[in-house]
Amino acid sequence: MASSSTSYVATVESVSTCPVNCEMCPVSRADVAQPKAQLMSLETAAIVATRLKHEFDVDFVAWGNWGEPLVHPQMVELTRVFARVGLRNQFLSTSLSVKIDADALVESDLAQLDVSLSGITAEVYNVGHKDGKWDLIRRNLEALSDAVRRKPGRLAVAIRWHRYKHNEHQLEAARAWAHELGFDFKPYFAHIGGIDALRDWDRGTLPQDKVDFVREHVFLEFVEHVIAQHVGETSCPMNRNLIVHPDGRLLHCCALMASHQSGADLLRESREALVRFKEGPNPYCAECLAKGWAGFTHSSKTEADLRAPLPAPAPRASGLRILAQGAAAPRG
């Protein structure tokens, strides 16, 4: 077993697809290569869980990355597979835009479930979560609230609220509703997308419809300011995060879609080979670190990330490009 000084966390994709089609998610981009839609089998999960726990000293597992975990028909069983080897600190992020068994989720081996939300009415929610089924989500939230109240202490639930310009007027009503449901409320500033979107924005190659969405809806001044604070960093928390694809491949990075096209075989390769792969050079890492994208991606995206107050608004033509290259806004 690895020592605690070399322990890892894990991000596990039970499924590599999502029905919601969020505006800025890389899964919604036709110009970005997508992974083949796959479900993790219980057999693969058993091997992955055993290796994560006993060879990498993993003590925290997050279900989900760009996929919707609850699309998997055996998601509850997957949590039990991981719990049987001692992985009991399990977190899941979901849109709840699928049919669920609320009681089964509460009785699963999840410790925490966060629901991504960007509106409390369909017309606001579907601006960002384009294909999300609002009526289904609302019913799922109410069913989950009821199940949590009937089975206290089993599952902690939170609303992870995506803050956009178009939904800021619903922020406090959303907070009140979350507390009425018995859930925690975690607002954060919505981002431009993964590393693919940050890179394409910087290079001027982001599709025009995405550019228009960012300029109209995203708090760009916050994104720019936090990115600027991380320009020139040399290390990334991703080094200690084991990202596992549904087929059992270990991916180099969770935030870059190109990583889904390759990987190391977590089911068969030695621990030493997997560590070399994870710690080895990646052609995208240098630019990602130098321009502050890695630090921004791993920030909480709340006011707590601001080392200095946001600057007063000023006209600028180059968007993220100037700040990302470190030509403005000192790191503070």
Structure description:
This protein is 36% helix and 12% strand. It contains 13 helices and 9 strands. It has a 9-stranded mixed beta sheet with strand order 6-5-4-3-2-1-7-8-9, covered by helices on one side. Helix 1 (42-56) packs parallel to helix 2. It is globular. It starts with 8 loop residues before the first strand and ends in an 8-residue tail after the last helix. The relative contact order is 0.14.
Features:
332 residues, 36% helix, nine-stranded mixed beta sheet, alpha/beta
Structure described in brief:
The protein has 332 residues and is of the alpha/beta class. The protein has helices spanning 42-56, 75-84, 102-106, 122-128, 134-150, 171-181, 195-203, 208-217, 220-229, 271-279, 285-290, 293-297, 320-324, and strands at 9-12, 61-63, 90-94, 112-117, 156-163, 184-189, 241-244, 249-251, 264-265.
What's the arrangement of secondary structure elements?
Elements: E1 9-12, H1 42-56, E2 61-63, H2 75-84, E3 90-94, H3 102-106, E4 112-117, H4 122-128, H5 134-150, E5 156-163, H6 171-181, E6 184-189, H7 195-203, H8 208-217, H9 220-229, E7 241-244, E8 249-251, E9 264-265, H10 271-279, H11 285-290, H12 293-297, H13 320-324
Parallel strand pairs: 1-2, 1-7, 2-3, 3-4, 4-5, 5-6
Antiparallel strand pairs: 7-8, 8-9
Helix pairs in contact: 1-2
Distance between the termini: 40 Å
Q: Regions with pLDDT < 50 over 5+ consecutive residues?
A: 1-5, 314-332
Number of strands: 9
The general outline is globular
What profile does the largest beta sheet have? 9 strands, mixed
* SSE order, one letter for each helix or strand: EHEHEHEHHEHEHHHEEEHHHH
